[in-house]
């Protein structure tokens, strides 16, 4: 019996590990390296109604223990994602979480309605938090009432459960989480990247053409852990946690904070085999920590529990 | 076939100002066939620097399962790489990208190879493979100054070699394009790698010739998944069509992408 299978709204996962949106394309590249059906799920690259080229280059810059990116939601648009990318993914036995993005409410609704009908899409990830697009997006992710209304409208048309991806670039993330819960969200994914900037000391100019970019990687893990710790105690929605996950230990830390599954982002660029490696190591770590099942770890940092067996030993 | 492997350092030496030559041994060498491909190196086990570094392949030695890179140590990652010595191991992902097409020239024809600075190294393996095929090669290599010049002798062994320096401290004073026109160099196919202004000048000057360019861009994953290194295509310069430098390139036919 597996100790790491997880059941969440719309998602029966053989393990709680999935690549994060934007760090895995639509899976084609990584399928050359390993069998995608090893993954718990795949969060595919954000899809918008029309194709987007994205931002000018340079689009990435490195920082200590992290990276900044401003890709700008480059994607081939709804129609091609459904007819080409999702169709191609059907050969792999893995549930897809489709990241839905837009600049107007109508965009989001149109994409959600159509993409949620795809056979292998088991859930939507409503992207109200991309820091790298100039229009629309940011209000959806930072004003609770706007986020709530959008969630409600997307829920009305979606055929599958809707997870809302929260931005860390807010004063009060609990307020945002509560708003989308009231809007009918089935779950949360958190966190998106933190807005940052790097300046080249030779040119005196920002390294990234878009000037600002989203900070990801191990540098943001403590921020994500803190936010999930806060939010998971205030809302009753399951949380898929993300931000700087590199190891099985990181996964457990996210569960302890309050997550029920974990997405791996930037680490895929550092070690393309990171997801299957974590999946292999996770059962032994769960057992070593004294749990029968990984779900017992969720919220361990704030629930009133027996002291851990690991510490008793 | 892309592989990830811990490769052993066979040798490392400084060959010019800030320029290092590093030879690694590993099984993934047997997947390397096309000149112009690159590898993605993790220079430290820790998180700083976090990302891999794309480095071009300068020489492939199937017999000894080794390959050589020539790179400039000027940032944190490449400076750490320069500290590696014999017996150390380095995490290598590769070979990546698509390289220079050898079939663009026939036996007996002439290929002109133009390199600028740290764009010179991948031309060395290319030149060796072209010579082996019976193609005449001419090299025009540009550097900033005398102390940055490397591999003049190695290229000279393979064919006619011209050196230019931007400050005139060695070889011809000026740019590679000046060298080509002053010497009236004739060729059937041009292969080039170097700074974008140089590539642009060559693309413009030889519009009616067969020209292949190797591009450089900041990369994330190196395998085509992150969309960090995209460029517009020549037939749709402002639209949604794109090529990824890491996986569709780094070598493109002139005009295929917008420089």
TrEMBL record, chain A:
Record key words, sorted: Cytoplasm, Flavoprotein, FMN, NAD, Oxidoreductase, Pyrimidine biosynthesis
Gene: pyrD
Residues the entry annotates as binding substrate: 45, 69-73, 127, 192-193
Entry-linked PANTHER family: DIHYDROOROTATE DEHYDROGENASE (FUMARATE), DIHYDROOROTATE DEHYDROGENASE (QUINONE), MITOCHONDRIAL-RELATED
Oligomeric form and interacting partners: Heterotetramer of 2 PyrK and 2 PyrD type B subunits.
Catalytic machinery residues: 130
Enzyme Commission code: 1.3.-.-
Pathway listed: Pyrimidine metabolism; UMP biosynthesis via de novo pathway; orotate from (S)-dihydroorotate (NAD(+) route): step 1/1
Subcellular location per the Swiss-Prot or TrEMBL entry: Cytoplasm
Stated role: Catalyzes the conversion of dihydroorotate to orotate with NAD(+) as electron acceptor.
Cofactor: binding comment: Binds 1 FMN per subunit.
InterPro entries cross-referenced by the UniProt entry: Aldolase_TIM, DHO_dehydrogenase, DHOD_1B, Dihydroorotate_DH_1, Dihydroorotate_DH_1_2, Dihydroorotate_DH_cat, Dihydroorotate_DH_CS, Dihydroorotate_DH_I
Organism per entry: Cytobacillus horneckiae
Residues the entry annotates as binding FMN: 21, 45-46, 99, 127, 165, 191, 217, 243-244, 265-266
Class of this enzyme: oxidoreductase
Similarity section: Belongs to the dihydroorotate dehydrogenase family. Type 1 subfamily.
Residue ranges constituting the Dihydroorotate dehydrogenase catalytic domain according to the UniProt record: 6-284
Reactions listed under catalytic activity: (S)-dihydroorotate + NAD(+) = orotate + NADH + H(+); (S)-dihydroorotate + A = orotate + AH2
Cofactor: FMN
Principal place of residence: cytoplasm
GO biological process, one term: 'de novo' pyrimidine nucleobase biosynthetic process
Example of a GO cellular component annotation carried by this entry: cytoplasm
Entry protein name: Dihydroorotate dehydrogenase
GO terms assigned for molecular function: dihydroorotate dehydrogenase (NAD+) activity
Automatic annotation (TrEMBL), chain B:
InterPro entries: Cyt_c3_hydrogenase_gsu, Dihydroorotate_DH_ele_sf, Dihydroorotate_DH_Fe-S-bd, Dihydroorotate_DHASE_ETsu, FAD-bd_FR_type, FNR_nucleotide-bd, OxRdtase_FAD/NAD-bd, PyrK_electron_transfer
GO molecular function: 2 iron, 2 sulfur cluster binding; electron transfer activity; flavin adenine dinucleotide binding; metal ion binding; oxidoreductase activity
Subunit text: Heterotetramer of 2 PyrK and 2 PyrD type B subunits.
Pfam families, alphabetized: DHODB_Fe-S_bind (PF10418), NAD_binding_1 (PF00175)
Binding site for FAD: 53-56, 70-72, 77-78
FAD-binding FR-type domain ranges (all copies): 2-102
Cofactor(s) in the UniProt record: [2Fe-2S] cluster; FAD
GO biological process: 'de novo' UMP biosynthetic process
Listed name of the protein: Dihydroorotate dehydrogenase B (NAD(+)), electron transfer subunit
HAMAP family: DHODB_Fe_S_bind
Associated pathway: Pyrimidine metabolism; UMP biosynthesis via de novo pathway; orotate from (S)-dihydroorotate (NAD(+) route): step 1/1
Similarity annotation: Belongs to the PyrK family.
Protein residues bound to [2Fe-2S] cluster: 221, 226, 229, 246
């Amino acid at each position: 019996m597996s100790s790491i299978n997880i059941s969440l709204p719309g998602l029966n996962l053989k393990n709680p590990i999935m690549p994060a949106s934007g760090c895995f394309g639509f899976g084609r590249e990584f399928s050359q390296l390993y069998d995608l059906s090893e993954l718990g799920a795949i969060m595919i690259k954000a899809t918008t109604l029309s194709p987007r080229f994205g931002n000018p280059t340079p689009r990435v810059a490195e920082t200590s223990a992290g990276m900044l990116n401003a890709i700008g939601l480059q994607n081939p648009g709804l129609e091609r994602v459904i007819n080409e990318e999702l169709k191609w993914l059907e050969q792999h036995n893995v549930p897809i979480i489709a990241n839905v993005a837009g600049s107007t409410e109508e965009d989001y609704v149109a994409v959600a309605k159509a993409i949620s009908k795809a056979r292998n899409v088991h859930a939507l990830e409503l992207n109200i938090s991309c820091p790298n697009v100039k229009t629309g997006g940011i209000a959806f992710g930072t004003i609770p009432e706007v986020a709530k209304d959008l969630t409600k409208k997307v829920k009305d048309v979606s055929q599958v459960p809707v997870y809302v991806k929260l931005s860390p670039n807010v004063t009060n993330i609990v307020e945002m989480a509560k708003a989308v819960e009231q809007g009918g969200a089935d779950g949360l994914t958190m966190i998106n990247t933190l807005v940052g900037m790097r300046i080249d000391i030779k040119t005196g100019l920002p390294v990234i053409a878009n000037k600002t970019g989203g900070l990801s990687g191990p540098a943001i893990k403590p921020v994500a852990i803190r936010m999930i710790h806060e939010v998971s105690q205030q809302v009753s929605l399951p949380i898929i946690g993300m931000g700087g996950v590199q190891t099985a230990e990181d996964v457990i830390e996210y569960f302890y904070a309050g997550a029920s599954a974990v997405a791996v982002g930037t680490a895929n660029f550092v070690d393309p085999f990171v997801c299957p490696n974590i999946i292999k190591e996770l059962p032994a770590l769960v057992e070593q920590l004294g749990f029968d099942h990984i779900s017992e770890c969720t919220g361990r940092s704030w629930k009133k529990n027996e002291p851990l067996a690991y510490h008793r030993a | 076939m892309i592989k990830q492997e811990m490769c052993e350092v066979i040798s490392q030496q400084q060959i010019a100002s800030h320029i290092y030559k590093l030879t690694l041994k590993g099984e993934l060498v047997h997947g390397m066939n096309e000149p112009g491909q690159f590898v993605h190196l993790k220079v430290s086990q820790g998180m700083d620097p976090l990302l891999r570094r794309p480095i071009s392949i300068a020489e492939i030695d199937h017999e000894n399962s080794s390959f050589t890179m020539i790179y400039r140590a000027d940032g944190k990652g490449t400076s750490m790489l320069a500290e590696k010595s014999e017996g150390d191991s380095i995490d290598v992902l590769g070979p990546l990208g698509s390289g220079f097409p050898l079939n663009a020239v026939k036996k007996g024809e002439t290929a002109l190879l133009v390199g600028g600075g740290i764009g010179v190294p991948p031309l060395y393996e290319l030149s060796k493979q072209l010579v082996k095929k019976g193609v005449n090669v001419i090299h025009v290599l540009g550097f900033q100054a005398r102390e940055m010049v490397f591999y003049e002798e190695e290229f000279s062994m393979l064919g006619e070699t011209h050196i230019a320096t931007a400050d005139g401290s060695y070889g011809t004073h000026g740019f590679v394009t000046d060298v080509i026109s002053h010497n009236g160099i004739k060729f059937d196919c041009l292969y080039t790698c170097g700074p974008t202004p140089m590539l642009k000048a060559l693309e413009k000057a030889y519009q009616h010739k067969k020209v292949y360019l190797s591009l450089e861009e900041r990369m994330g994953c190196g395998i085509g998944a992150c969309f960090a290194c995209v460029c517009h295509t020549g037939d749709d310069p402002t639209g949604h069509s794109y090529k990824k430098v890491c996986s569709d390139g780094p070598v493109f036919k002139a005009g295929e992408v917008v420089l």
